[in-house]
């Protein structure tokens, strides 16, 4: 079997091994493939039977023209980059990685929140500049410092990652509210389930942990921000499309939203004219919640097992089963 990995660098910049895929067939790994060049994508797939992709899109045309293709492995949980209906029509199975970075992503959400509360990076930089040395007092700070105990965090999307985030928040002494269409006993042990408007109204911190769907696109918009407490903190390391970037930037600049911690934005990599780049109290990291080595190692192991299971006739984690 010929196997092509279209954009392997983000998953494996050199600290992991592709050996499990090499054992499955003739492997070609590209660090990156131009995401807007369908002809190049098709050329690189060539006559391969299996393709793995993280963010390189596989639109309908790929499945019409890559005649040998039988399997697509998405090196991520989200698979919206693949036209799964076209893949099904052409007999191509598509698998994803349903869970690999749960703890890492929950940890990162709280890291964003703690950075907003304490501005550790900023204050460390100011010490290096000499501001502490020059200070007449034994300490100094130039951002408000925030204690989280006793405050309320509202978590939108209370699956695996939302619940990890909720457990950490509870350990910090926070009250946890949750909104999810699927209320579970494990979730009820951590949080009080509530309606969305109620969550907006009561939360000091709102953290997003839901997949992006047509129904919740730009859920955080001017109308819903108006329902929130003055001075609310927003955390998003889920999907950038959940937030209307300009509406959030306007709310930050007006002080309605005190601060935002974002690991994702609507269009990535972030464009230089994104209004969030110049918004007040907005911390942006470059989509790295998922990227600890431990998480990427689990991702690779699951991706390899998905491929082995497909080759063995017992496919796993298929997102487009034959109807």
Structure commentary:
The chain has 323 residues and is an alpha/beta fold. It has two domains: 2-100 and 293-311, NAD(P)-binding Rossmann-like Domain (Rossmann fold, 3-Layer(aba) Sandwich); 102-284, NAD(P)-binding Rossmann-like Domain (Rossmann fold, 3-Layer(aba) Sandwich), CATH 3.40.50.720. Helix content is 33%, strand content 15%. It is built from twelve helices and twelve strands. It has helices at 19-22, 38-45, 60-65, 84-89, 102-118, 120-128, 160-171, 185-188, 196-202, 222-226, 245-254, 293-311, and strands spanning 2-5, 26-29, 50-53, 71-74, 93-95, 152-156, 175-179, 192-193, 205-208, 232-236, 257-262, 282-284. The strands form two sheets. The protein has a seven-stranded parallel sheet, with helices on both faces. Helix 5 (102-118) packs across helix 7. The mean pLDDT is 97.
Q: Which percent range fits the helix content? A: 25-40%
- In terms of DSSP E residues, the strand content is 15-25%
Low-confidence stretches: none
What is the level-2 CATH architecture name of the largest domain? 3-Layer(aba) Sandwich
SS elements, strand count: 12
CATH H-level homologous superfamily name of the largest domain: NAD(P)-binding Rossmann-like Domain
Tell me the number of structural domains.
2
What order do the SSEs take from the amino end to the carboxyl end, as H and E?
EHEHEHEHEHHEHEHEHEHEHEEH
Q: What is the rounded distance between the termini?
A: 26 Å
Mean pLDDT: 97
- Shape descriptor reads globular
The value of Rg in angstroms is: 22 Å
What's the CATH topology name of the largest domain?
Answer: Rossmann fold
> In which order are the strands of the major sheet placed?
8-7-6-9-10-11-12
- The helix/strand class is alpha/beta
CATH C-level class of the largest domain is Alpha Beta
Number of helical elements: 12
Largest sheet: 7 strands, parallel
């Amino acid at each position: 079997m010929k196997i092509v990995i279209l954009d392997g660098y983000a998953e494996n910049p050199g600290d992991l091994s592709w050996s499990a895929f090499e054992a499955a067939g003739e492997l070609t790994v590209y660090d990156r493939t131009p995401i807007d060049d369908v002809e190049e994508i098709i050329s690189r797939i060539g006559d391969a039977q299996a393709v793995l992709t993280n963010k390189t899109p596989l639109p309908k045309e790929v499945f019409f023209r890559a005649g040998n293709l039988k399997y697509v492995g998405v090196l991520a949980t989200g698979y919206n980059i693949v036209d799964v209906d076209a893949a099904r029509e052409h007999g191509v199975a598509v698998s994803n990685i349903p869970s690999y970075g749960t703890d890492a992503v929950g940890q990162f959400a709280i890291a964003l929140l703690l950075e907003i509360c304490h501005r550790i990076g900023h204050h460390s930089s100011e010490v290096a500049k000499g501001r502490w040395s020059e200070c007449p007092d034994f300490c100094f700070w130039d951002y408000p410092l925030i204690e989280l105990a006793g405050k309320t965090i509202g978590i939108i999307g209370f699956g695996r990652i939302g619940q990890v985030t909720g457990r950490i928040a509870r350990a910090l002494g926070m009250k946890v509210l949750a909104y999810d269409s699927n209320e579970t006993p494990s979730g009820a042990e951590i949080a009080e389930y509530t309606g969305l408007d109620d969550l907006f109204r009561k939360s000091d911190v709102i953290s997003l942990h839901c997949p992006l769907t047509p129904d919740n696109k730009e859920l955080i918009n001017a109308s819903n921000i108006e329902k929130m407490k003055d001075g609310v903190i927003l955390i998003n390391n889920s999907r950038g499309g959940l937030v209307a970037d300009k509406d959030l930037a306007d709310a930050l600049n007006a002080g309605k939203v005190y601060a935002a911690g974002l690991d994702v934005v609507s269009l990535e990599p972030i464009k230089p004219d994104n209004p969030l780049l110049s918004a007040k109290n907005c911390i942006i990291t470059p989509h790295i919640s998922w990227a600890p080595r431990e998480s990427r190692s689990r991702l690779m192991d699951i991706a390899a097992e998905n491929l082995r299971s497909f080759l063995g006739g017992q496919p796993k984690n298929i997102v487009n089963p034959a109807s």
